[in-house]
């Protein structure tokens, strides 16, 4: 079933039915039940910021699909060196079969999609990380099942915002606990409500994790926020995912990585049997491979 969208900038660019089909395809490809190919397709990968999982998962995935991935860092192309982004987009659209962009400003990925004559995938912006959500939902399917209740504990950042909407689309209940000044954009809860979810955020982590099957956290100080470090560490006191917070629960733990061990999550939790983080990391590639096949027309 081809996707109705040409680009994947936010998780709700696809419908719940399409999301379910993407996850089905990802699971089948991961299990070796189907082996679609992308022929000689090339994916241009634009990076404004460093990455481990995004770069390696997309590059390896394209190779496994029979295609080619091209790394385009800030020193490799004219992006940010005087050429308007729309011009870069127009040129890339005539060379490559798809573009994956990991950028700071969400408006920039929208500009790429507007002017590039090929599919554009959001590999991360300051507002959204939909590819991570695909991997998260695949991981939940495999481990806990879609009847899961997930508690998001920590910063109301791009990863959390995409996850809340994606979980709503998949019928997964989510509780959100963030410090008062670091919550999610209220529009995120409106988008989730459009899929039948009723998410009421709280500032109480213990209340959020009550009855949760999974506790999901992410870094408190994201890339580019280093100057806010001391202020944030003070504001997030009590939000660390540690043995005390998890005591009395059987909850598994998710984290999109990289983790700042000793800040948002402790080392012992990440190294325990509770951690699903390595499955999440692996599933970035499987989920994205399914997305690439759908957007680039694999056979």
From TrEMBL:
Keywords: Cytoplasm, Transferase. Its main location: cytoplasm. Gene3D superfamilies: Aspartate/ornithine carbamoyltransferase. It is found in: Cytoplasm. InterPro entries: Asp/Orn_carbamoyltranf_P-bd, Asp/Orn_carbamoylTrfase, Asp/Orn_carbamoylTrfase_sf, Asp_carbamoyltransf_Asp/Orn-bd, Orn/put_carbamltrans, OTCase_ArgI. GO terms for cellular component: cytoplasm. GO terms for biological process: citrulline biosynthetic process; L-arginine biosynthetic process via ornithine. Residues 7-142 form the Aspartate/ornithine carbamoyltransferase carbamoyl-P binding domain. It holds the Pfam family OTCace_N. Carbamoyl phosphate binds at residues 51-54, 78, 102, 129-132, 256-257, 284. Residues 147-293 form the Aspartate/ornithine carbamoyltransferase Asp/Orn-binding domain. It is an enzyme of class 2 (transferase). It catalyses: carbamoyl phosphate + L-ornithine = L-citrulline + phosphate + H(+). GO terms for molecular function: amino acid binding; ornithine carbamoyltransferase activity. Its EC number is 2.1.3.3. L-ornithine binds at residues 158, 218, 222-223. Belongs to the aspartate/ornithine carbamoyltransferase superfamily. OTCase family. This is Ornithine carbamoyltransferase. It comes from Halorubrum persicum.
């Amino acid at each position: 079933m081809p996707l109705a969208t040409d680009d994947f900038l936010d998780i709700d660019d696809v419908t719940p039915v399409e999301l379910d089909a993407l996850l089905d395809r990802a699971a089948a490809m991961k299990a070796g039940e189907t082996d679609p190919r992308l022929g000689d397709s090339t994916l241009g990968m634009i990076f404004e910021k460093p990455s481990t999982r995004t770069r390696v998962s997309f590059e390896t995935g394209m190779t496994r699909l029979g295609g080619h991935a091209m790394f385009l860092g800030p020193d490799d192309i004219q992006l940010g060196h005087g050429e308007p982004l729309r011009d870069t987009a127009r040129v890339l659209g005539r060379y490559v079969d798809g573009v994956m962009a990991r950028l700071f400003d969400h408006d920039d990925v929208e500009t790429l999609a507007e002017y590039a004559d090929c599919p554009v995938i959001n590999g991360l912006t300051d507002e959204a990380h939909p590819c991570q959500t695909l991997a998260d939902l695949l991981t939940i399917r495999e481990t806990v099942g879609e009847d899961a209740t997930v508690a998001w504990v920590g910063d109301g950042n791009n990863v959390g915002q995409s996850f809340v909407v994606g979980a709503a689309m998949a019928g997964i209940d989510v509780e959100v606990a963030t410090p008062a000044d670091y919550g999610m954009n209220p529009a995120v809860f409106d988008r989730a409500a459009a899929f039948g979810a009723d998410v009421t955020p709280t500032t109480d982590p213990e209340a959020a994790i009550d009855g949760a099957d999974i506790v999901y956290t992410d870094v408190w100080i994201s890339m580019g926020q280093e100057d806010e470090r001391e202020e944030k560490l003070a504001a997030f006191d009590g939000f660390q995912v540690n043995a005390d917070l998890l005591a009395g629960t059987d909850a598994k733990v998710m984290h999109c990585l990289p983790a700042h061990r000793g800040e948002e999550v402790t080392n012992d939790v990440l190294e325990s049997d509770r951690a699903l983080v390595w499955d999440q990391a692996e599933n970035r590639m499987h989920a994205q491979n399914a997305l690439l096949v759908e957007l680039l027309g694999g056979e």
